[in-house]
Design goal:
The complex is a heterodimer of chains A (about 80) and B (about 475). By secondary structure, chain A is mainly α. Chain A has a single domain (about 5-85), classed as Orthogonal Bundle (Non-ribosomal Peptide Synthetase Peptidyl Carrier Protein, Chain A), CATH 1.10.1200.10. Chain A is built from 4 helices and no strands. Chain A has helices at about 5-15, 30-35, 40-55, 70-85. In chain A, α1 crosses α4 (about 70-85). Chain A is globular and about 35 Å long. Chain B is built from 11 helices and 19 strands. Chain B is globular, with a radius of gyration of 24 Å. With about 475 residues, chain B is of the alpha+beta class. Classes of the chains: A mainly alpha (about 80), B alpha+beta (about 475). Chains A and B meet through α3 of A and α7 and α9 of B.
Chain lengths: ~80, ~475
């Protein structure tokens, strides 16, 4: 999984929980919480959506690091690489 | 048209899922109805064969309108009694009416088991009939078993009322101001009024000294509903001069058209919320309590538990908070139930209403049924499912109509505490704020602990601060033993 693929997957999962989000307006480095109305249930659904799409198991302790589009993308790329290695 | 929440007085039939001749069983989803808040799947309360659909797709009709007729093979046997009574007396729960019995048929002699909270037994079918005919059940003598009011009693009372020809309904109060208070203050009983009205509407009209005869009725057959009375006492809207419409195809008079623009829908939802909350603040003497709860043990356990669970099965702290509330009700049951007509009926089942904010704005509080009997995993699944469907606008009718207590969790938005407004006819609302790390003294030491502020808004007619305090203490105690939740 390269960065572009990972980004597409994150945006897909994000659109499921927050359909009003437009990818162009999303600052990839700013925390989701500052840009989108997202609660813990939404975030859990995002994580579940990512796992369903990529098969990457995301432990709860990693949640805090996954707070922006770029952070999620990087996480998936790294975890995907670790899995296939 | 079922009442899908205490704030609903009309709904738009969006889709039929059945057609005449279809066989249905109790609990089947037969239609999709749009309230001002959401599209709701409506379940049928009685099995049988669909005879006729009486309301067309796209029509907006008042609560209580018969949507369809069902031929039930067990017509003379009691309908299922497991179905709980509707939370609001004048709003009938049944979704689709059974056909009226042929004239030569005797009314059923076996009446269904009495609903627990009713002093005199009245079956849902009879209650609905009474509502449709504008008959006050309180004023009828029951001839059925153990004083039960039968269909015949209601029909008889309706005929007696109808023998006085209904006066030409005057226009809304904007055009014809209500008669002077002296006349309006005459009790309804002393002067038989030809106006049809629900019992609650009559009571309210009496309280507010509004003459029912001066009101436009939006209920079935032009019956005056509680909402009509409330409207009459508010500042009249500029375009309130709509002529009387045939009740079954009444066009929306409020800017609440279900097919309207997003702005109109938003306005309709705000109005629905405003009406219900205003009623709550007007009728319910609230008292408020708050306590801080140390969640250190709870969250440590949760972290451990979640590490062993797959992503989709992980629990949110909210699931533990909800479960603790549901179990605490067993210790202080007077927080759970309905207050109707100045009488409190505790509920044995715990149907936990969960306040869910919608992405497009607004709020909805559907129920997780029997939350006290679900495992944490089941409760979490139910919560996720409910939030997802609420936000997608696909809730089921039973979820909307029967929460017995509500929990609101505003912690997500970052506030530390929330003092809620009780959803009538419920009698309590529990609020949780944000879980924050705070200095906490325990065992002579000060340390940083995750703390949540739990609040209670409860109805002083039913309970007082002492019992409310015990309720919050029970929630605290339950959260200290998360493994037992």
């Amino acid at each position: 999984m390269n960065e572009q693929q990972a980004r597409t997957i994150v945006l897909q999962a994000l659109r499921e929980i927050a359909p009003e989000v437009s990818p162009d307006e999303l600052d990839p480095d700013a925390p989701f919480q500052d840009q989108i109305d997202i609660d813990s249930m939404d975030f859990l659904n995002l994580i579940i959506g990512l796992q369903e799409r990529t098969g990457v198991e995301i432990p709860e302790r990693d949640y805090p690091t996954m707070d922006s589009l770029r952070a999620c993308t990087t996480y998936l790329v790294t975890a995907g690489a670790a899995r296939s290695a | 048209m079922p009442s899908l929440g205490a704030d609903m007085d009309a709904g738009t039939l969006l889709e039929w899922h059945v057609k005449p001749g279809d066989t249905v069983k109790r609990g089947d989803v037969v239609a999709l109805v749009d309230t001002d808040k959401a599209a709701i799947d409506v379940e049928i309360f009685q099995g049988g064969v669909i005879e006729q659909l009486l309301v067309a797709e796209g029509d907006r009709v008042p609560v209580g309108t018969v949507l369809a007729t069902v031929h039930s093979p067990a017509e003379t046997t009691p309908p299922p009694v497991a179905s709980p009574e509707p939370p609001r007396a004048p709003a009938p729960r049944p979704v689709v009416a059974a056909p009226a019995p042929p004239h030569e048929t005797k009314p059923p002699t076996v009446e269904p088991a009495p609903p627990a909270r009713q002093a005199r037994p009245v079956s849902p079918v009879v209650r609905r009939l009474a509502h449709q005919l504008g008959v006050d059940l309180q004023a009828i003598h029951g001839t059925g078993r153990s004083g039960a009011i039968t269909r015949a009693d209601v029909e008889g009372a309706a005929v007696a009322t109808a023998s006085t020809p209904p006066a030409a309904r005057p226009a809304r109060p904007t055009e014809a101001p209500p008669p002077p208070p002296a006349e309006a203050a005459v009790p309804a009983r002393a002067r038989p009024t030809p106006t049809r009205a629900s019992p609650a509407a009559r009571r309210r009209a009496q309280e507010l000294r509004v003459d029912l005869a001066g009101l436009h009725g939006s209920g079935p057959d032009g019956a005056v509903t509680l909402a009509d009375v409330d409207r009459a006492t508010q500042t009249p809207r500029p375009q309130a001069a709509a002529p009387t419409q045939p009740p079954t195809t009444e066009r929306p008079t409020a800017p609440a058209a279900a097919t309207g623009s997003a702005a109109e829908r938003h306005l309709a939802m705000r109005q629905a919320i405003a009406a219900l909350m205003a009623r709550s603040k007007r009728e319910i003497p609230h008292y408020y309590l708050a306590t801080h709860i140390d969640l250190q043990r709870t969250l440590r356990w949760l972290q451990e538990e979640n590490s062993a669970r797959s992503v989709a099965d992980r629990l949110l702290p909210a699931a533990l908070l909800l479960k603790a509330v549901a179990l605490a009700i067993h210790e202080v049951p007077e927080m759970n139930g309905f207050m109707e007509a100045d009488q409190f009926t505790p509920s044995h089942a715990v149907h936990l209403g969960v306040a869910i904010s919608l992405r497009q704005g607004g709020l909805i509080a559907p129920a997780i049924h029997d939350a006290d009997r679900l495992s944490l995993g089941e409760l979490m699944h139910a919560l996720r499912d409910l939030v997802t469907r609420a936000r997608a606008g696909r809730l089921r009718g039973s979820e909307m109509s029967d929460p017995t207590i509500t929990v609101t969790n505003l912690g997500e938005q970052g506030v530390e505490s929330v003092f809620g407004v009780i959803y009538p006819p419920q009698v309590a609302l529990v609020g949780f704020g944000k879980i924050t790390e705070q200095p906490w003294a325990a065992d002579g030491m000060v340390g940083a602990r995750p703390i949540v502020t739990a609040t209670l808004a409860a109805d002083h007619r039913i309970s007082d601060g002492h019992r409310g305090g015990l309720f919050l203490a029970a929630i605290d105690q339950l959260l200290q033993e998360p493994e037992a939740l």
